[in-house]
Write a structure and sequence with these properties.
Shape: globular
CATH architecture of the largest domain: Alpha-Beta Complex
Helix content: 25-40%
CATH class of the largest domain: Alpha Beta
CATH superfamily of the largest domain: Creatinase/methionine aminopeptidase superfamily
Oligomer: single chain
Distance between the termini: 19 Å
Strand content: 25-35%
Number of helices: 7
Bound molecules: manganese (II) ion
Radius of gyration: 19 Å
Number of domains: 2
Length: 300
């Protein structure tokens, strides 16, 4: 990896570290998820970086991909375990991190299990380590707390404008003997759950990303596709970002039609909410690393 690229990852990581610290300090019981996400995204925009994806605020059995909709009234209650997943990019070079806040007072150990699994995995992450060794360590750590890791969610490589690149970094023991290589940026993100350890897709989708620029007939869909390609490239975006956009000036009907047409043509893909079984609780911890000139650099 060139020094210039490494510096962009490091800068994205520095910005994200600050944003994460502020979020940990300021998120409180009773706040609306929509206000939290908007505030964090506005803060990122003020730093010279950009959000690499909509802030994910997944509660309880939702493990990932929940971002508030434009009219979302959900507020944090004392029955909630909240995952806060934030990304920053500089010219497409992404830093990705997440942490969990327990408002119940009952799931401190679940949060600790995910955090400890992350720390153990980070300590192993250097060039030459096999991916399965990291997965085993995460699984062993989370099992040691009496919880399950989520096996069908994983860490991932980070490439320019690609949030989920190869290699995928397992959260359980697998037979993947590939090794982490120098010059690679990646995120490790263990999930600990009281549920089954397998997530499923919900119907609700608030997050989308450009898949391929394809011809579409509807004029609003065409305008939206051009906007997405220019504004977000291949990084994920939220429907609420489109809804509030002054350049597009779409009403709700136009927005829904345009999004539906882009989905149907395969120009964009959806990231449905991913949840474990009903009444379960999930905790997540995530950071990003860069292997550069033989050393592991923690970005966040
Ligand atoms: Mn993340
Ligand atoms: Mn990630």
């Amino acid at each position: 990896m060139e020094q210039k690229e490494a510096e962009k990852y490091i800068k994205a990581g520095k910005i994200l570290s600050q944003v994460k610290e502020n979020a940990q300090k300021h998120i409180k019981l009773g706040q609306k998820l929509l206000d939290i996400a908007s505030k964090i995204e506005a803060e990122i925009a003020g730093t010279g970086g950009k959000p690499a994806f909509p802030v994910n605020l997944s509660l309880n059995s939702n493990a990932a991909h929940y971002t508030p909709s434009i009219e979302d009234l959900t507020a944090i209650s004392e029955n909630d375990v909240l995952k806060v997943d934030i990304g920053v990019h500089i010219d497409g070079y992404i830093a990705d991190c997440a942490f969990t806040l327990d408002f119940t007072g009952k799931y401190g150990k679940l949060v600790e299990a995910a955090e400890k699994a992350l720390e153990n995995a980070v300590a192993m992450a250097k060039p030459g380590i096999e991916l399965r060794a990291i997965g085993s360590e995460i699984e062993k750590t989370i099992n040691g707390y009496g919880f399950r890791p989520i096996s069908n969610l994983s860490g991932h490589g980070l490439e320019q404008y690609t949030q989920h690149a190869e290699p995928s970094i397992p959260n359980t023991s697998t037979n993947d003997s590939r090794k982490l290589e120098d010059g690679c940026a990646f995120a490790i993100e263990p999930f600990a759950t009281t549920g089954s350890g397998i997530v499923r897709e919900a119907v609700q989708t608030e997050i989308f990303a450009l898949e391929e620029e394809r011809p579409v007939r509807n004029a609003h869909a065409r305008k939206l596709l051009e906007f997405i390609a220019g504004e977000y490239e291949t990084l994920p975006f939220a429907e609420r970002w489109i809804a509030g956009n002054k350049k597009l000036k779409f009403g709700e009907f136009e927005r829904k039609v345009a999004l539906r047409e882009l989905m149907q043509s395969g120009a964009i893909r959806a990231f449905p909410i991913l949840h474990d079984e009903k009444n379960s609780f999930v905790a997540q911890a995530e950071t990003s690393l860069l292997l550069h000139e033989g050393k592991a650099i923690r970005l966040v």
